């Protein structure tokens, strides 16, 4: 049987996400699920010169009970330039920045109105750069269950990754400072380690 995992769609997912799906052959996403505030749906963490910083995509309104695929990005805010500058500031001197940044820049320049569409595009790019062959698909409400494992709602910012059974930090080269910051955005790993990123993720899968 194909190992299929039901999972939430995140904005530039952190390393715990990739450790959790490391053995998956298929990822199943749910665009009609209700948007949850204080989630990774619109935020990610990167390593800056003096701290770990958060990049958040602004969304229109704060209406309850809205499905994720109906969440619109608030384009009145200059968020794209802020995120691009943040990424450039954080990783402009990283070994693989010049190779990978153009992929993400092109994705940002599409000016997605939907946060779901933006996240889907960026995750697709990340998986491609990781050399992953995992299949991504969306599940509609009236479809039969196809997944063999369900981790929806588990990877939340409010609970430390150490309290879950997916990710055991594997240190790698990072810019700025001597202390290693675990579980940052996949951007941190890709820009710093390039083609070695996939093997580092596999080493970070928590042993059961």
Q: How would you describe what is shown here?
A:
The protein has 208 residues and is α/β, with parallel strands linked by helices. It has one domain (4-203). It is built from 6 helices and 6 strands. It has helices spanning 15-20, 79-91, 97-108, 115-130, 186-193, 197-203, and strands at residues 4-6, 26-29, 43-47, 52-56, 135-138, 149-150. The strands form 2 sheets. The chain has a 4-stranded parallel sheet with strand order 5-2-1-6, with no helix packed on it. A hairpin with a 4-residue loop joins strand 3 and strand 4 (52-56). The longest helix is centred in the middle third of the chain and has 16 residues, at 115-130. It is globular and about 50 Å long. The two termini are 21 Å apart.
Précis, in short:
This protein is an alpha/beta fold. It has six helices and six strands; from the N terminus they run E-H-E-E-E-H-H-H-E-E-H-H. The longest helix has 16 residues, at 115-130.
Task: Provide tags for this entry.
208 residues, alpha/beta, 6 strands, globular, WbqC, WbqC-like protein family protein
């Amino acid at each position: 049987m194909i190992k299929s995992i039901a999972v939430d769609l995140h904005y530039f997912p952190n390393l715990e996400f990739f450790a959790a799906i490391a053995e998956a052959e298929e990822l199943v996403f749910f665009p009609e699920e209700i948007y949850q505030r204080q989630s990774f749906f619109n935020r990610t963490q990167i390593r800056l010169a003096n701290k770990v910083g958060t990049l958040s995509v602004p969304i229109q309104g704060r209406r309850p009970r809205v499905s994720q695929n109906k969440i619109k990005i608030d384009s009145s805010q200059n968020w794209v330039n802020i995120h691009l500058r943040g990424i450039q500031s954080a990783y402009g001197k990283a070994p693989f920045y010049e190779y990978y940044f153009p992929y993400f820049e092109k994705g940002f320049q599409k000016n997605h109105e939907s946060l779901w569409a933006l996240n889907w595009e960026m995750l697709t790019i990340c998986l491609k750069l990781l050399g992953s062959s995992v299949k991504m698909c969306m599940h509609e409400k009236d479809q039969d269950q196809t997944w063999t494992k369900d981790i929806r709602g588990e990877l939340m910012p409010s609970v430390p990754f150490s309290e879950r059974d997916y990710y055991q930090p594997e240190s790698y080269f990072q810019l700025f400072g001597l202390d290693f910051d675990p579980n940052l955005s996949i951007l941190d790993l890709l820009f710093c380690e390039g083609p070695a990123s996939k093997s580092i993720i596999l080493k970070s899968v928590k042993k059961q």
